[in-house]
Each structure stands twice: as C-alpha cells, then as structure tokens.
Design brief:
The structure holds two protein chains of two kinds. Chain A is mainly alpha-helical. Chain A has four helices and no strands. In chain A, helix 1 runs antiparallel to helix 4 and helix 2 runs antiparallel to helix 3. Chain B is built from eight helices and no strands. The chains are: A mainly alpha, B mainly alpha.
Chain lengths: 137, 165
C-alpha cells in the first residue's frame, strides 16, 4: 500500500469509488421509487432487469479491490479484470441496451451517465499505472 | 570536404544504434506456435487445446443454423437477449485472438487469463439472473448453463495457474 501514495492514482480511486457508490445508490433509489414509465421495448426491459445485478456485481468488485488494496497485494490483475468487465458491460449497453442507468426523472441516473465515460477512461489509466508500478518494484 | 562529424556519432555507439533501430521490431515480432509453447508444461498445452476446442465448438454451435440457433443456445427468444448473446460470442472470439497474440509475442498471459475468467463469472451470473426471471422454475437447462460456465471458469483458472509456472 505504501507504493500508492496520494497522487494521480489516489484521485482515480476516488473517482472509481464515487462511480461505484453512485451505481449502488441509483439502483437502490430505482428499487424504492420505481420507474414511472413502463418498459417500452425488450432492451429497456432488459436494462431494468440488469440494473440490480450490475449493482451487486459492482459492489463485489469494489469489495475485492478494497481487500487487495488494504492487504497490500498487487492490484494490477484485479484492476485488469474490473476494466475488462466494465468495457464489455459498456459495449453491451451501447450496442443493445440503449440508455442503461438513464431514467429521466432521477438525477442520479444523469450523474451516472456523465460519470461513466470518465470511469471507463480512468480504470484503463489505473490498469496501466498499476502494472507499470508493479513492474518497477 | 566536410570534416564536421555528426554529434550523435560521438554519443551513441554502433551497438546502441543497432539496438535502438532494431530493438522495437524484434520485441513485437511474433514467434511460431511451437516456439511459443517450447518452454511450457504439458498441462499448459493440454489446457490450451481443450479451451481452444471449447471456443471453436461454441462458435460452430452458435452459427450452425436452425437446430442450434441463437434462440436455442441462449434459451430465450427476446431480441435484446439474442443481441447480447451475439456480442458476447464476438467478444469471446476477440479475447481468444488477443490471447494467442499475447502468447505468440511470448509475453505474460496470466493476467489476461484471470481477467477472462472474471468476465466469464460476469457472463455466468448475468445469464443465470436472466434465466431465473425467464424460466418458470430452474430446471435442468438452468443447472446445465451454470455448470458449463463453472467448468469454463475453473479450466481458465487452472490454465492461468499453469501459465504462471
């Protein structure tokens, strides 16, 4: 853990943490308030079904990352796995599921839409940076 | 006659120049498959053969036509499910190609294998959640689906362990 001080990597971690918390928060909010509009197509129906699953999966990944980080183990592989899953999920959303997360009435959905590209770029940067640092050790 | 010497000739030696000009292309040069597998264990080769065969079978089954169509393979007739399934098969093939590329470059493949197994876990979990919603009750099809993915994940992790040796 001492190899990762308060630098750009730390800022990236805050961004990733913020995104993960927002995913969970948005999903809980969605479950509590519900969507005012019924699903219009197969893809939007699938989006709603996938939302809870994504939140659980995001929480598990975040928990695994935190465990590795706090115990001082190498995080390059974990970050690589998280980045791969995130990009595949994004491709699925982008090509099939239309606006995943986006519920016009909920502000948290709009924030997530804004944070997602930042998150995807940040996680790739973190993978490269973590691997570079681990190779230099 | 120009007696002026190139300043770089004094700084860089001929050997260093050779490394600088030829080093990068040699580093990115693909080796043959026998060369790449020369220092690997027999178990690594077996895992590689089995996983390649499995991916090939999935590819054939997915694109085989009516009896083994997308709808049958993915246990659903929803267009969105079928599209997701198509994208997943395509991503799987891309990852296998990426793995072979990495292997032929003779670079480390452990992290890629672990990432692919994590992705398989995501596919398994999302598919299982979807099937639980679609099917009236989890039957043999559901358990076969989960079992197939579990075997794939275990195979990939064993493969990663072997690659690390």
């Amino acid at each position: 853990m001492s190899h990762y001080k308060y630098d750009s990597f730390f800022v990236c971690e805050i961004l990733i943490g913020l995104f993960a918390v927002m995913v969970v928060f948005h999903t809980v909010l969605l479950a509590m308030l519900g969507d005012s509009q019924p699903p219009l197509s197969d893809s939007s129906y699938l989006v709603l079904e996938m939302a809870s699953f994504r939140a659980v999966f995001t929480s598990i990944l975040l928990f695994v990352y935190l465990c590795f980080r706090l115990t001082g183990q190498k995080i390059g592989v974990v970050l690589g796995a998280i980045a791969l899953i995130s990009w595949v999920a994004f491709l699925e959303d982008f090509m099939v599921l239309e606006n995943a997360f986006y519920i016009p009435e909920l502000f948290s959905g709009k924030v997530l839409q804004f944070l997602r590209p930042i998150y995807l770029i940040t996680i790739v940067y973190m993978v490269i940076e973590a691997r570079r640092r681990e190779m230099n050790l | 006659m120009n007696d002026k010497k190139n300043p770089f000739d004094e700084i860089i030696t001929a050997e260093e120049k050779k490394i600088l000009l030829g080093g990068a292309s040699g580093y990115l040069q693909l080796s043959s498959l026998p060369e790449a597998l020369r220092d690997k264990t027999p178990a690594f080769k077996v895992y590689l053969a089995v996983i390649t065969l499995l991916v090939f079978l999935v590819f054939v089954v997915t694109f085989a036509g009516a009896p083994l169509s997308y709808a049958n393979v993915s246990n659903t007739s929803h267009p969105a499910d079928l599209q997701v399934h198509k994208i997943r098969v395509f991503i799987g093939l891309l990852l296998v190609a990426g793995f072979y590329y990495q292997l032929l470059l003779r670079q480390e493949v452990v992290s890629l294998l672990v990432s692919i197994s994590a992705l398989c876990a995501y596919f398994m979990a999302s598919g299982a959640v979807r099937l639980l919603r679609l099917l009236p009750e989890p039957g043999l099809g559901f358990y076969m689906y989960v079992l197939t993915w579990l075997v794939s994940i275990i195979l990939l992790l064993l493969f990663a362990r072997e690659a690390a040796r």
